[in-house]
Amino acid sequence: MKNIVEGFELSVKKFPDHIAIKDKNRYLTYKELDKESSRVAVELVKNGLKKGQFVSIFLKRSVDTVVSILGILKAGGVYVPLDPAHPEERNRYIIEDTQSPFLITKSDWLEKIKKLNVSSKNILLDRLDDNDEDVSVDIQENDLAYVIYTSGTTGNPKGTLLRHVGVLNLVSWKQRVFNIRSEDRVLQFATFSFDASVPETFVSLFNGSILYLIDDEERMSAEHFLKTIDREGITVIPAIPTVFCNQLSKYAKTHGKRKFGKVRAVGVAGELLTGEVARNFKRQFGNETTLFNLYGPTETTVAASYYEVPDEIDENMYSVPIGKAIDGTKLYVVNEKGERCKVGEIGELWIASVGISLGYLNQPEKTAEVFIKNPFEDIFEGMVYKSGDLVKELEDGNLVFIDRKDTQVKIRGHRIEIAEIENRMCQIEGILDAVVVVEEDNAEKILKAFYISTDELSHAFIINELKKNLPSYMIPSKMKRIEELPFAPTGKVDRKKLKMIEADRVILVTDEIVNPRNQVEEDILNAWKRVLNIEGIGVKEDFFEVGGHSLKIIEVLAEIKKKYRGLFIKDFFELRTVEKLAAKAIKEYKKEVQVKETTFVQLKEYPVLKVDKILPKVKSVVLTGATGFLGSHLLKRLADMKIHTYAIVRGNQPEERLKKKLNKYFHMEMNEYIHVVNGNLTQRFFGLSVDEFKELAFKVDAVIHSAADVRHFGEREHFEKVNVEGTKHVLELLDVNPDLVFHHISTVGTVEDLLLEGKWMEFQGKNKIPEDLQLNNVYTDTKLKAERLVLDKVKEGYQTFIYRMGNLTGRASDGVFQENIDSNAFYRMMKLMILVGKAPDVNWMVDFTPIDFASAVVTTSVLKTQHARRVYHVNHPEPIHYRKFIDLLNEVGYKVELMDKIEYEEFVLNLTSEEARNLLVAQLDGDGAKDSEAVFDSRDTMTSLGIKNIPEINKEYMKKLLEHAFEVGFIKANKIVEEVLV
């Protein structure tokens, strides 16, 4: 083959219906990818693209990016990958430098592209004509294929020109060494503006493999990455950054993960691979995965050498070799006189290669400086590239990387010339001189900047000036103003001394500091500054990026809630900036408070699905969430009934943790019916081996999935991982053993939120949960998603059941409640009422579901072999009115007076007690006393299961609850606390 297009088309002919490329949202077969890319090629040619012209791609990493790349190459063009996350000036410079006549993008990006103010014609992927035409362009191996821009010392990046022949040579070598096959699943990790994306993409597409594009969320942490590797069955990872390799090993060790999924080969590149990082990888993942240390500059088509890391690594080895030349490449170690070094001598690495670049676009002087005539032999067009890297040759012929000859470094796999950053800093008005050094911070390289300035400049100002021209990975993480630069005896800046000087951490604020534009923004921003103890931020900063977290939200709201009642905890997770929070506060403030009589709505056990078979008798079960309040009560009841229960418990010393819970709640010991399995639900197969997982599935008759994150606010990502992904992992037990019966613990909060959001009618009378039904609250939305997963299994022939739990309260027998009583919203509400002697007057049917009653209902259902329904509501069938609840508090000796809801909030927010105000904030978020139409109807559940022993919610029960709260110190005193009003 003579070009990249031919290599791809061979795969299309051999594997037309194989999946070629996939991301989390979409996939294309080879035939479809061929057709989609041909549409792009036809559009380009039709609009006048000439062979060898540059075409810029302005897209987020996606299937569309690969479609665009192939389309450009088919049309004879040269692709120029841009990153929309990079500064406008950088992208504008690249488009202008290449004089790209066309820019491929989608409609969503048009507004951002307009700001670039370039003359390129936009080719919109989402508006292409559907046609079956094709193009035929004579592309030779020495024709240009792409240009990658790397950091440059002049203040602008350098465009490196690469040819088809280099890619063909690279792919051929990588296919041989990594043994890529059509059945492989290859991971595409790098951004397309980074040259590592080239071998990842084409080594897969040339071999009929599946190329999976991991997205930013999936590669943001070792946890997400490993989960994706498992889920997608990845077998080959062409390259990941060296630092990330270390993170994977550390995470896997901490979480007891012993296997790297199905991955048989992985390359690491970008920075020095130390012996310790390689040893950690081998210790953690064993010898099942082959590890390659890869080295190569963009200027020689990505790779120049490689080294297969041995299974046993000498403890004295500090630096893992970068190895020997790849195919079509020759390496020379050269001293300052231009002579080849002897073995063991340190010199600069010069590279001759089939894939050597044609130089830097529009920079002839820089090109002539590093691309020179080969003085040693006439091979590969007679040229060598002077890499600027210092290496030495070992006795066995392998090379070891020593350092950079100049100040260029790599940060998170991105090649950076420090001089470019220093140059940009010196362009900032007021800065006279600047020096940037690299510091090791927890095994990760970060940039630290020192500067001399005429005046005091805020770090936020400097950061925002730099962000106009530099991508985020080139922004220093630390800064310090100094009076003068230290110099070494040689007359050069003493960078080693600067490395030893501590500097201040800086915050990567948004584009520029935007000051408050109204009183609401000013109030909220001031609260942020006080609580977070921070300056130099504006109304566009992200709360969590400037040091905020969930506890800080409470503190901020405690300061502003009195004035802005329309803001809630969840808003900080969803809106995140002062600007957006203020907009919501203003909108809510304009709404009139409406008090209306509430008509109660019975929320029944929908959807209705019939059970058409008799279930097997249950003798043993798998139980998740056994250390939780409900889970421990289910475990105790099952053990008492001599049901063998396999409790999935994560973390260190799982058996000890479970023992403590059982002793705490029941004063009981473990017995022969309780079996502990150390597993983590956020991992596939619970982190067990496949054989162990299969064995577990066939040991039991039923599964009770009681584990969940039940907080009512937080990051969606976390709730998805625990409540949705965790449920998927537990459901996989059914895939192993289809005879298992699955019992899923959910919450009545799902149906209440459906009612509050006006979506209850969409739920009624259905025999499934509609696919498009979503909730605004992340907690209940993820629980609804989990319910859908469980009930969808019924269509596949599995036996699954849902239990929506009500407001779980202390035991009917003795009032004992969960260990972390202070985190329960309902108990915190009671505490506040007792603390201040007041309560808001609302119209609400209050559900008390004693935990021993709830666990009895669930276990009764689990052990039944005949069912009339699949969805159960596990709550008290006779809720009491809120006023009755207040009467009960008074009857047991706590004087609590009802007052208008708005007046009550005003009263508490004006108290000097910080505890009272903080307690109120969470309750105003929806977890406290409220006007509500919702009544959780469980009458059909109780009738179906034959439950007759219903506990009474009376004075005696209320007394038990409060006596327990008093005993554990949750409620301090049996009296009203008088406060001095502000």
From TrEMBL:
Top-level taxon in the UniProt lineage: Bacteria
Occurrences of domain Carrier (ranges): 515-589
Coiled coil: none
Gene3D superfamilies xref list: 3.30.300.30, 3.40.50.980, ACP-like, Luciferase, Domain 3, NAD(P)-binding Rossmann-like Domain
Pfam families, sorted: AMP-binding, NAD_binding_4, PP-binding
PROSITE patterns the UniProt entry points to: AMP_BINDING, CARRIER, PHOSPHOPANTETHEINE
Protein name in the entry: Amino acid adenylation domain protein
Species of the source: Bacillus methanolicus (strain MGA3 / ATCC 53907)
Top-level taxonomy: Bacteria, Bacillati, Bacillota, Bacilli, Bacillales
